[in-house]
Amino acid sequence: MQQSENPFFSVTVPAYKAQYLAECIDSILAQTYSNFEIVIVNDASPENLDDIVGRYHDKRIRYYKNEQNCGALHVVDNWNKCLSYAKGDYIICMGDDDKLLPCCLEEYAHLIEKYPELNVYHALTEIIDENSQFVRMQEMRPECEGLFSMIYGRLNNRRLQYIGDWLFRTSFLRSIGGFVNLPFAWGSDDMTAYMAAREKGVANSQVPMFQYRESSITISRSGHYEMKYKSMVEMLRRVSELVEDKTQPVTDLERLYQQSCVAVVSQTKKNIKDTYISSDIISHGKLTRGFWWLLNCGRIGASRSTVIKNWLKSLNKSTSMRIPSRYVDYGENDF
């Protein structure tokens, strides 16, 4: 696959919130690499995004508005609308409150030059707070790795990752029908990256390039535990299919990671069930939600014993329980 020496990037922003949108746009325009476009898709927001975008007079910015709101449940629909407008060889889909560091696109261009055959690349990420202050770093990753190393690192080593720290080959995304669509986008970024890395792996940057904003208004800070539970169960079902696929040629090291992933996926399924059921029961009424899960456990794929165990656990809790960050971080999309 021949690659342009000067790749054209589409930096897409599925937008809904106004608070940090100008910071987001400014960070893209501040790139040291100039061959890019910005595609902003306003998801029928009640906030005045028009005035913010209207302040910019840069031909690289293209602005679209949805007639109907995709909403949090179907947020990936807006990611894919961004994809439909993109003209670039490669695409970033970032939150409207996240930021690119000035070197981001230039570093991606270097990675593409070094690994031109790949369908996905990853940016080392800084986590920032609501005041744009540095909080912590994402963990380092090997410069180049295969699919099973990625899955093992995510599930066993609890890697942090977000939709905005991936760069995808646009033609590949379109060939698989766009970003993998799961409710609330929980697991969508993971599955899309896994699909893109399945045959050729991923290249990871060794310098910070992206800033993810932790905020109290992201989807993962809200409830909707039943739908998130279903989304995560579906994501893990698809991961199991990838892990159990013995047809893909792999290196000896990748084969060891593949074998290790089997047990890790099984344990993660158990952890997800325990975490989500307990969180929902505690957050929405220990008595009524406990009965709800007991009556509906068969329909949604949770065992009766798991529900009873977590219901009893919740009765001993005096305060609300937050989902641990290693599960919260699945598929956060800053909507």
Descriptive notes:
- It is a single chain.
- This protein is an alpha/beta fold.
- Helices cover 43% and strands 17% of the residues.
- It contains twelve helices and ten strands.
- Strands 1, 2, 3, 4, 5, 6, 7, 8, 9 and 10 form a ten-stranded mixed beta sheet that branches.
- β2, α2 (49-54) and β3 form a beta-alpha-beta unit.
- The radius of gyration is 20 Å and the shape is globular.
- Mean pLDDT is 87; it is low at 318-335.
Keywords:
335 residues, alpha/beta, ten-stranded mixed β-sheet, 12 helices
Radius of gyration: 20 Å
Distance between the termini: 35 Å
Shape: globular
Low-confidence stretches: 318-335
Q: What integer is the average pLDDT?
A: 87
Task: Give the biggest sheet.
Answer: 10 strands, mixed
Q: Portion of residues in helices?
A: 40-55%
Number of helices: 12
Strand content: 15-25%
| Overall number of strands | 10
Based on secondary structure, the structural category is alpha/beta
Order of helices and strands: EHEHEHEEHEEEHEHHEHHHHH
Topology overview:
Elements (H helix, E strand, L loop, with lengths): L8 E7 L5 H9 L6 E7 L6 H6 L6 E5 L9 H11 L4 E4 L5 E2 L3 H11 L5 E9 L5 E4 L6 E2 L1 H9 L10 E4 H6 L12 H10 L4 E12 L11 H20 L7 H32 L2 H15 L3 H12 L9 H4 L7
